[in-house]
Amino acid sequence: MHGYGYHHLARFEGEKGIRILVPHKRRIKAEAEDEEDTVILSGFGVGTVFDTSQTTGRDLPEPPPVEVIGGASDVGMRLYVDLLDYLEIQGVSTAREHTAPRNGYFDPHQRHVGIGYHIDGDQATKTLTHETAHMVAGHTVFDRTRDVETVAESAAFVVLNHYGIDSSGYSFPYISRWAQDRQVLKQNLEAIQQVSHQIIGTLEGSREHVVFERQPRL
Description:
The structure is a single chain. The protein has 218 residues and is of the alpha+beta class. It has a domain at 64-203. It has helices at residues 74-89, 121-137, 145-162, 168-178, 182-203; strands spanning 4-5, 10-11, 18-28, 38-51, 55-56, 93-97, 104-107, 112-116. The strands form 3 sheets. Strands 1-4-3 form a 3-stranded antiparallel beta sheet.
């Protein structure tokens, strides 16, 4: 993500890294020669990155524009329906609407989620997951935008990757715009983990999912 240093930058001595969630993937070799290998998400770990202010070297390029997720997978369609059911149980109404230029929104006062007519397939599922994360986190209009958007999009990325849908082309550039200050991501890591785990745990009917407790406004 933009703003964080990697291998081509040298960090200043004594700087402490930023701990982030890192997806672990495993490649399963195809049985037939004419088939492609399958890459599955095997879990998540914790990695370390450094903000560019902690490093020396050439400037990092500007973040790329978000890439709309193409296609409509069976997994994505199932996840979309499951999220609609989950929101209904939580007393949140949903509707397809004219939301452009936004892809969607969550209204905490009306407890309503709107998804744009102009998106479909797995992109619509990604947006619904993002708005569901706002609801689960208990975000309000009084919270800082950079915090709520970082949490919602990061949680959406984690949830979609859990189900094998790659949203990195959209999520990483999106998150980088709101979390250019390394403290934003650092302060919200726990919320991201709690929200994504609650969504996944609830959808899978797990009795061990983490229940998110509303954190004080930052």
